[in-house]
Design goal:
five-stranded mixed β-barrel; about 45% strand
Length: about 180
């Protein structure tokens, strides 16, 4: 966030506020998620002084430049960088580093801010798919066929099952291989 200005003033204009040398600042999480809110300071004697705040800030975000369909990759060709005024926390915006690595979880209309909740990793392994599972421990390398019990993207942890029915945890390497942990 690029903060241009923060204003702090007493909650009541008639309050005569004396800031003590030692105090605790208390602010609710819900007030931290908005550009305007309340907080108070409390001195060692338990006396409280209430304040209002106002933040003039801007966020660099990614927006959809076209309608994006469910399962479509989020890329630089279907997004644009945009600056918006901060008014309240809506969720975590995706970063440019995620471009080309994630897909739309659902339909995203044109000019919509793209949040983490709108995307998911591209699943390179599907539930029920047979893949090669390997264990590499020092000089020992064992490879076997396993069935994926979950969808998974690269670097995701998923459950797999051997042909003998043994369930194991694995990390997805690519669309054909998982490393058994």
């Amino acid at each position: 966030m690029d903060i241009k200005n923060i204003q702090i003033f007493p909650k009541n204009e008639n309050d005569n506020i004396n800031i003590p040398n030692n105090y605790n600042l208390i602010i609710n999480d819900s007030d931290l998620q908005k550009s305007k809110g309340l907080f108070y300071i409390e001195d060692t004697n338990g006396n409280k002084s209430y304040f209002k705040f106002s933040i003039d800030g801007y966020l660099e975000i990614l927006k959809s430049s076209i309608n994006i369909q469910r399962g479509e990759f989020i890329t630089s060709s279907n997004t644009i960088h945009s600056t918006i005024k901060f008014d309240r926390y809506r969720g975590d915006y995706i970063s440019a580093s995620k471009l080309n690595n994630v897909v739309a979880k659902g339909y995203i209309p044109k000019d919509r801010e793209i949040l983490d909740r709108n995307i998911e990793k591209n699943h390179v392994i599907s539930k029920g798919q047979m893949v090669k599972g390997f264990i590499n421990d020092g000089h020992i390398y064992i490879e076997t066929e396993v069935k994926a019990l979950q969808n998974g993207g690269i670097d995701d942890f998923i459950q797999v099952e051997t042909l003998e029915g043994i369930r194991l945890k694995a990390i997805v390497i690519n669309g054909s291989f998982v490393k058994i942990l």
